Predict the 3D structure of the following.
Amino acid sequence: MTPAGPRKVAARIGALACVGLVLAACSSGGGDPADYPEDDIEVIVPFSAGGPTDTVTRMVADPMGEDLGVQLVVQNIDGAGGTVGAGQAATADPDGYTVLMHHIGMSTAPALYDDLAYDPVADFKPVGLVTEVPMTIIARSDFEPETFEEFVTFVQENADTVTMAHAGEGSASNLCGLLLTDALGVEVTAVPYDGTGPAMTEIVGGQVDFMCDQTTNTTGQITAGEVKAYAVTTPERIDALPDLPTTAEGGQADIEVSVWHGLYVPAETPDEIVTKLTESLQVALADQTVIDQMADLGTAPVSEDQATPEAHAALLDEQLATWGDIIGAGQGG
Ligand code: MLT
């Protein structure tokens, strides 16, 4: 966040002055929630710039900023499947000036990382869901298989030599990759990156063979013919890629996953500020430019009743339980 020195110092003095009056308001470290926002807001994206989560965040950041009258500044803090950036957001000042955009990875991390630095429920307040992005199975453009069925056979027959990219343990591309290799009954060499933005560069460059990644990162390369595309992981084909068959059409219906995204603030952030962010998110998701941008990349905003703290908290709880069971079972629990 832009170091508003004078204002921040003023706020701290103000905070001391009003102790015992409006404790809730003062404890946020910022000004009075009624005056929020008085400064630019930092949005932490826990994956590399240029990747799918970064792309979705930048789509809503501008219209939210316009609505709130400040700038939403994206800060990419990547690493460890998104847990580094989420950990940083969990300990940020609860004053509404640090917001986190995260996805399904928020619900997988507790089951995968013994030393996780945060609790997705206790350390955060959900602001609202944003979108649910389909995934696609893609490969470098000179990869041998032509169809999804050929891809399945080729990977099964060459499991010891093919390589699969992903964005770290617990990331969406990691989960989808595990669903894929599990369904094919093979283990392959996984190559981790800090995001699928840099992984895509290596796929396009031919350094790594294939990846399962979100349409918000693959649609452009697929339509430009820079990568081969085999299937989409949703029950129905998607409008942005009408010729791309579903995994079910290719006889692999178990490989079904899409990536839900939501905004979070540190747990102690005043509800009044959360409400302002939720309302602003709803304005952004109803913005025709955002709707068109998402449609071009194979996804759509969630409905207004999903862009709420309640719906977001309910999905997070359900997903924590679901992935806890799946990952636990996978680890022999
Ligand atoms: C990214 O933005 O790089 C992705 O969301 C990473 C992933 O989870 O696969």
About this structure: The longest strand covers residues 124-140.
